[in-house]
Amino acid sequence: MDEETALIGDGSTAHALPTIAGKNADLVSISHETMADVINGNYDEQIDEYTVIDCRYPYEFNGGHIKGALNLYTEQAISEFLRTQCAVETDCRRVLIFHCEFSSERGPKLLRYLRSADRKENSHRYPYLSFPEIYILEKGYKVFYENQQSLCEPCAYTPMLHKDHSADLRHFRTRSKSWTAGERKSKLRRSLMSPY
């Protein structure tokens, strides 16, 4: 990791957590061991609070997730989270850790969405960010569950492609895509109606 990427998103300080080279070169990755250490309080001196954001669909989340995780799987849910959290100004060091089943698609996509929305929300005071320190859990819930079952509730793992949830998968994929498409149409409509 070069010196620039060793700093958190606003460039103010180094990352509190040890990072690893991950599948997504533009994101800052942590291992399942580091995630377990965060949950077990081994980084309480370095960070004030952390939030685990599980980007899997609800049937996956309900079938087993990291203790204390929030299930936010749409851009709308991420926007609402950002809006409510930005309303609370704080000097404490807050860390977000995103993941999905493998941390290869949904988690990285929603992490990037939050960073972009945060940057836009705070554009008037660049480089300030409400959440400058964001990580992706490398290899996602699957590998975390295989190695840290005592930190999962319930202690289980439901894959996205589980045969008993094919109707759920269709429903949530459609729901995720329809919100994004609806939001884009709404933005286009507003921009076409704008006098500027």
Automatic annotation (TrEMBL):
Protein name: M-phase inducer phosphatase
Pfam families referenced in this protein's UniProt entry, alphabetically: Rhodanese (PF00581)
Keyword vocabulary terms for this entry: Cell cycle, Cell division, Hydrolase, Mitosis, Protein phosphatase
Gene3D superfamilies: Rhodanese-like domain
Keyword Cell division: yes
Keyword Cell division assigned: yes
Function noted in UniProt: Tyrosine protein phosphatase which functions as a dosage-dependent inducer of mitotic progression.
EC number: 3.1.3.48
Highest taxon listed in the record's lineage: Eukaryota
Residue stretches making up the Rhodanese domain: 46-153
GO biological process, one term: developmental process
GO cellular component, one term: cytoplasm
Family: Belongs to the MPI phosphatase family.
Catalytic EC class: hydrolase
Catalytic activity: O-phospho-L-tyrosyl-[protein] + H2O = L-tyrosyl-[protein] + phosphate
Membrane-spanning ranges: none
